[in-house]
Design goal:
Number of strands: 12
Number of helices: 12
Structural class: alpha/beta
Distance between the termini: 27 Å
Strand content: 15-25%
Bound molecules: nicotinamide-adenine-dinucleotide, thymidine-5'-diphospho-beta-D-xylose
Number of domains: 1
Length: 336
């Protein structure tokens, strides 16, 4: 039985990953999260009494606090999700992105080395590769050409991980994934925002001409890839994960409206995101060939499941939108 320190486990992908690990195997999980606006412990309400699960509140950029966490828990493996993750916020102010994504990653690498963590899994993104035109795919050999403050901070963190492998011979793997969607995604990202707005009869803001393309992957397919990379990935390697589902934003928005039985008159074209990447597309051949991984969900079934989840879990996203979710930690954990 190994002890896994999951950073950012109260966020969207991290909470899905923690739940997956608790459903099988015998790992003990420490969920380390600062509970920023994006951290929501209600995402893990169903597992919080599991005896293999423990929550610790902490800021990954705080070296002293991280020293205490590593000294107490001595993790065998670190799976690092914690990040500032929203591109639009990074355009407004990149400070927290550099602090958490770059400095936070460096602190975790230092502590992992000091406390002899066996493996460090760094969860990164396709956005570090930049933007594609109409043709081609990102492979693990594609040069890093990040364009937004968010993706540049993730690229910097990837390079710190690379340095830890080459300089300090640490056992790290980097995963890079395309756009995730599914249950518990914060309703600032395209799919949950559009679903929640449509359900409330609000306008759906589509940036620019709506023809930017993203490759969508259902969140548990990404989590399975990370689990495989954690167990069987080779030290120093990068693994791309994509969902085989390239779609224009406007197609995704119209599909959501169709599934909800709402009219397209809710669509509202707005000013484009500054520096908006045009297209992302992933080549996941390496992960398929070497990890035996493959995404299980088609976009159509994943989107239907996701829309159903948001319809059935209105209370979850209404508590996010009202800010009520931020009182949960105090109530359940007494502010510890
Ligand atoms: P999220 O914003 O939903 O969650 C991030 C979590 O990190 C939150 O729980 C937050 O409280 C925590 N956090 C932030 N700053 C922290 C700090 N200083 N110390 C400790 N915890 C902190 O993000 P997500 O969408 O779940 O993404 C998780 C990871 O996956 C990120 O590293 C992101 O770059 C990467 N990723 C995301 C996607 C996607 O489509 N969402 C795709 C590829 C890669
Ligand atoms: O209101 C919106 N209107 C709109 O047209 C929003 C929020 C987004 N968009 C567009 C911008 C993008 O082309 O939809 C697309 C998806 O936008 P986001 O959901 O903000 O995701 P993106 O910018 O592609 O980044 C995501 O995928 C990679 C995650 O947020 C990152 O954390 C991840 O690394």
């Amino acid at each position: 039985m190994s002890k896994i320190l999951v950073t950012g486990g109260a966020g969207f992908i991290g909470s899905n990953f923690v739940r997956m690990l608790l459903q099988g195997g015998d790992h003990r999980i420490v969920n380390l999260d600062a509970l920023t606006y994006a951290g929501n412990l209600e995402n893990l309400q169903d597992v919080e009494r599991n005896e293999r699960y423990q929550f610790v509140r902490g800021d990954i950029a705080d070296a002293k606090a991280m020293d205490a966490v590593f000294a107490e828990h001595r993790p065998d493996v670190v799976v690092h999700f914690a990040a500032e993750s929203h591109v639009d916020r990074s355009v407004l102010d990149a400070t927290a992105f550099v602090r958490t994504n770059v400095i936070g990653t460096q602190v975790l690498l230092d502590k992992s080395r000091q406390y002899k963590t066996q493996r460090f899994v760094h969860v990164s993104t396709d956005e570090v590769y930049g933007s594609l035109g109409a043709w081609g795919y990102f492979t693990e050999e594609t040069p890093i050409q990040s364009n937004s403050p968010y993706s540049s901070s993730k690229a910097a963190s990837d390079l710190m991980v690379r340095a830890a492998v080459h300089t300090h011979h640490m056992d790290c793997v980097i995963t890079r994934c395309s756009n995730n969607y599914g249950p518990f995604q914060f309703p600032e990202k395209l799919i949950p925002l559009m679903i929640a707005n449509a359900l409330e009869g609000k306008k759906l803001p589509v940036y620019g001409d709506g023809k930017n393309v993203r490759d969508w992957i259902y969140v548990t397919d990404h989590c399975e890839g990370i689990r495989e990379a954690m167990a069987n990935g080779k030290a120093g390697e990068v693994y791309n994960f994509g969902g085989n589902a390239e779609r224009e934003n406007i197609f995704v928005v119209k599909e959501i409206l169709r599934l909800l039985g709402k009219g397209e008159d809710l669509i509202h074209y707005v000013k484009d995101r500054p520096g908006h990447d045009r297209r992302y597309a992933m080549d996941s051949t390496k992960a398929k060939a070497t990890l035996g991984w493959t995404p299980r969900h088609t976009f159509e079934e994943g989107l239907r499941q996701t829309v159903d989840w948001y319809v059935q879990n209105k209370a979850w996203w209404e508590r996010v939108r009202s800010g009520a979710y931020q009182t949960y930690y105090q109530q359940q954990y007494g502010g510890r």
